[in-house]
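Record type: ASSEMBLY
Status: queued
Input:
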Amino acid sequence: MVIKMSENDIRKIIYKIFEQNDISLQNINEDTSLISNGIVDSMTFVNILLAIEEELNIEIDFENIDINSIVTINSLCDTVSKITN
Amino acid sequence: MNIQQYLLKSFKKYNDNNALFTYNKYYTYNQLAELSCKIADTILYIKYIKQPVIIMGSKSFYTHAAICGTIIAGSYYIPLNETFPLERNMNIIKLSNAKILLLDYTDFAHYDDILNNIHNYNIICPEEHYEYLSSKFTNHNFYTPKDYNNKLLDAEKDDAVYMLFTSGSTGVPKGIKISNLNISSYIQAFIKRHSITNQDKLMQMNDLTFDLSIHSIFLSFICGACLYIPDSNNKINPNKFIISHEITHIIMVPSSLAIMKKLRLLKSSVFQSVKYIGFCGETLPFDNAILIAEAAPNAKLENIYGPTEATIACTYFEFTKNTKELPEYAGSMPIGKAYDDMEVFLIDENLNIINTGIGQIVLSGRQLAKGYVNNETQTKEKFIKINNKDCYLTGDLGRWVNGELVFLGRNDAQVQIKGYRVELYEIENAISKIENIVSNAVIPTPVNSITYENLTAFIIVKDDNIDTYQIKSILSQTLPDYMVPNKYIILDNMPLNSNGKIDRNQLKNMIK
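Status: finished
Output:
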């Protein structure tokens, strides 16, 4: 059975994973790069990306993906939603 | 030759060749030369002496011209870091004694906090920033780069080229001046092993406060190559940048390699253009090293080692995908043998040189700094004479295996995180200053790993109403990002060993 997840569900899951990694997304501009602005260090961010893959049972094509489409909260949610559905 | 002469020679020789690619734009040697020489002239116009100059920038053309201009003026540069907390940048400014500051405000976040906290500095900024800055910050004197026809001050071999700061256990960073002799010696030893031509493309992915940046910047400009600066988002995936720009030389910290491995980017033969990759700053896990050897089939690969005190790196070990792993390597790639003009040896606790067993790594030779600036206690402790030779005690442990040195971690509470040397005491000291925290201990993670990714803080609090986000944000005000623990575990009691000291092994077991 395939359950289609809404974008909102996916966003919630992504927020939860950031929280589990002790990254607070409160008061953060959802269109700003989490990396360039030092909100998440690159190693933690990678661990978060892998946790998202595992939680949602998806695979992100890191080799070909445009970096800008995963480094902000909004773009990450968008990209993950597209892959999931 | 010293660095000032090397740069002037390159500026004359390479003219229209590309010198720099940054923020998606190319700049030629002529452009770099013109701006650098104007900056040098302006520095000497403000004060006609050899002096420390602060650099506030990170990746821009102006920032690179500022570095070159400072050296051409016969002076030395001290970079700040936009990701450091204000207090740390302020400490660096204070300890540097600099009165001149080179600023590209578009290239340094929160520059205004710094300018508001210091007064009467002479600030050289790009022409197009002058009006805005001079009307906004009336507490400083602003200049723009111009020709004043000053005669350059010739740099001597013992004059400093740059000054960097390392973590100090008391919380005050320790300043290290690296001289023309030190850095020229490094460059000559490197060029002898690996040629770099004016057709090559060097990637520079490190902060200016980290001396791996110096390796790429100076080797590139001295050899007439083009220096490529990737956007910080590329830290997650440098593949596209390397492949599309046909990068030939890379120097990176092993944690960047670990990231590439985690994201499944280290596929066989993906990096065809790469001729050299050097790893430095942390232990290089053997299995990751073999993966990159397969991913970059045409590259010479080296694991290099050295503290800031001995100029970037001073030992090297060349490996290929066929390098055999020995059990004595303890899972890591050896750090090998000393650079030309450097000596490396191991000593026991009584400062006797040993050839078997585990000992402290000691360095000697032309790349050694003279000591810590204005810190006699630390200098006397670490810079000593052994057999009448000036030596530096690294605090790192090693062992000789078939004539190659193997790095075995630290002999004190210093660890390496993302290539930075971090004193755990400094972090614990900062945590202990937070109200409501009674006791704490910081453990690098993953535990029992050969490279650390992060830090976990164990804390005992007075009342339960403490928020880990709050602790994190308080620490971020005084510590750089890589020193702020990412995990916090609140305990009722701190486990103690028989000596009454915090039992770090028990804490490690709690993380597993």
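Annotation: Chain A has a mean pLDDT of 88.
Annotation: Chain A has one domain: 7-84.
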